[in-house]
Amino acid sequence: MAMATSQCFRALVRHAIGASAAGRPVASRATRPVSSGGTLRYHDRGFHRINPQQPRHHPWCRGARLATSAAGYEERITSTDNATVKHFAKLVRNRGYREECGSIVVAGSGILSEVCGGGGEAGGGSARVLFLADDACVPAGVTASRIVRAPEHVIKKAAGLQSVDRVDAVAELSMPPVAGVAALEGAGRITRLLALDGIQDPGNLGTLVRTALALGWDAVALLPGTCDPYNDKALRAARGGVFRMPMARLTWEELEEVTRRDGLRRFCAEPTADATAADTAATGSKGLCLVLGSEGQGLSDVALRTCEPVAIPMPGEMESLNVAVAGGILLYLMRRGS
């Protein structure tokens, strides 16, 4: 019986290779043709070689870019135990794994359209893998190396969003570089730089990036102790802004190098008695850098020692504001042309 099964399997493989060589698409329960062409197919048990010219990749490793599906085919995955679904879920929850793979997960057709349609993602906004609900269309502006149809519970698992009502699309995108001064090269000459000094809440970070982008700031520096900008909460709060805003993880020495190179005056949000009012801080400055401190600990000693204090005029009785709120006001008051 085992010998017969083995012979049957080898016959199926020979048939598949022959069909590919003849240019005929190969049918499977995991794929459904939407146009002609194709070299590889995928199902829940793994990738099956159809064209010997194609390299074999693990479906979850960085080098594969998860671009191994047949062009012109949509796959279908129905189990949360599938390797690609588990890969997505691990990307969502594990920062080290995101950095190892060089990719991140973005959920929601609206955010995906903003990210990919806006051209902010390196490589023309192409997703490595795109999960779609059965009734969902490919989001506007989005292209993908693999398109996978899946039921709602599978998409929620892949997105790490079990508690939301509905997720219609979730994609794996390449992670933009954030290491060192070189990551700011796309910003050109910087006249407005936001520096985050130990911001811990991903929601606050995402909100600040989104606000800085909306108000025309040039770049964001992530100083030591600042959380991951590609955390799923930060991604949702930024509405895709982390792809369109140049960002770099910098040491204080590197921040000093950037501000000196571009002639930026450094301010830190600190309401001291001698603080400059935010609505006048930009007067006479060719460019400036605004440093915001963490929610619990405030500004670091380095920030307090090397930056001029700036404050929001507040006639009311409250002494402080949430960092995302205060940062938004400061970004507006200190924007270009203010």
TrEMBL record:
Signal peptide: none annotated. The keyword Transferase applies. GO terms for biological process: methylation; RNA processing. Residues 193-332 form the tRNA/rRNA methyltransferase SpoU type domain. GO terms for molecular function: RNA binding; RNA methyltransferase activity. The keyword Transferase applies. CDD domains: SpoU-like_rRNA-MTase. Keywords: Methyltransferase, Transferase. Gene3D superfamilies: 3.40.1280.10. This is tRNA/rRNA methyltransferase SpoU type domain-containing protein. It comes from Micromonas pusilla (Picoplanktonic green alga). The lineage of its organism: Eukaryota, Viridiplantae, Chlorophyta, Mamiellophyceae, Mamiellales.
